[in-house]
Design brief:
Elements (H helix, E strand, L loop, with lengths): L10 E8 L5 E9 L5 H9 L4 H5 L3 E5 L19 E5 L7 H12 L3 E4 L4 H6 L4 E5 L7 H6 L5 E3 L4 H10 L3 E3 L16 H14 L4 H8 L3 H11 L13 H20 L13 H18 L4 H13 L2 H5 L3 H6 L5 H9 L2 H10 L6 H6 L4 H21 L1
Parallel strand pairs: 2-3, 3-4, 4-5, 5-6, 6-7, 7-8
Antiparallel strand pairs: 1-2
Helix pairs in contact: 7-8, 8-10, 9-10, 11-12, 11-16, 11-18, 12-15, 15-16
Organism: Pseudoduganella rivuli
InterPro entries: HDOD, RNase_Y/CdgJ
Protein name: HDOD domain-containing protein
Amino acid sequence: MSLPESSPFPLVGLKAVTNAQHEWVALAFDIAAGPDDALHALQAVFGYPDMQAALAPLDCIVTAPDLTVTDPAQLRSLPSNAIMFRVPLSACADAGLQKKCKQLAEQGYRLLVEGEGGIHAGQAGIRSMAFDCSTTVPSELAMLTMAGPHLALNVDTQARRDAAKAAGLTLFCGNHALHPEEDTNPSDGTSRKRLLALLGLLARDADSRELEILLKQDPALSYHLLKVVNSAAFALSSPIHSFGQAINVLGRRQLQRWLQLLLYARQQDDGSANPLLPLAAVRAAQMEALVKLRGGDRDQQDMAFVTGVFSLLDVLLEMPMTEIVGALSLDLDVVMALLDRAGPFGELLKVVEQDRPDSSALNDLELDHETWWRSLLQAYHWAIQVSRNL
């Protein structure tokens, strides 16, 4: 059965924007709305209950509504301290649009021009650019004429991210985290085997003592687990120093969830954060939220969470998913989802993996736009908190 009519709420997609250390600093919004509806769509999204609190402290990068028909005064209801508006390159060349951009800047909005705006961008109060780096990078002159920060768009490989960074861009948006450079100096496989063993213990709900023994063999994982338990998220009166205490404080269900995420917490060779961690957190949390919003019970919610968090293990471990699944004792529905994107969790995972699914895909799953947005908001809120606590 499908939904009888489309939702009046706009269809929204989010994509993380990171700094040079792979830390999330902003979210790029993809809001489906025609030129005549763009302003109302923005107002609906940013007027949604608790929206700003859920995504704080990240900036929100959105495409400005058509300034030829929009008065800057109409945007005053939007939070100027949180929004960065992307404006078209054409706005820099027209005197009337320059004036409107300058009014937005005076209202506190930060503006990014889509391309090399040059001196005209400065005349419009624009200090930053958003540049499509899929095939090339901006010129040195463009980088010198604008203060920044500058956003590199469509950085879908590590090579493109490196090129954008070398050119002087400091913000990055794309799928590069899903396409890391191949490891030219692989380890002896001990760490990978330990991770798979830990995943196996979690999958079969092993005894806490077994988990503790394996955790002690992995200093990095042990450190992150104790850091989580002692973080502000748990607000304990006295610090936790042992794994047994940590397991007791978290409880079995939360322990499993944190450990599944902590697999991604290992730092990169350059000391920066692993960009896969918040992505795995988003997928897991949104899968769980969608199942819950559709009336799924606690066991179904847990399996949905596992599906989301495990969906990036092939990238993390640089192994085929068939080998990973073969080493674990997972529910059949989770296996079907991970291997073939099939079954009830597989259908959900397919839409969760997209930056912004189309309405027909949501309609097939009996999800309206507002339900999708609610699940997205919950997922990103949790991922932001996870990233700050690890």
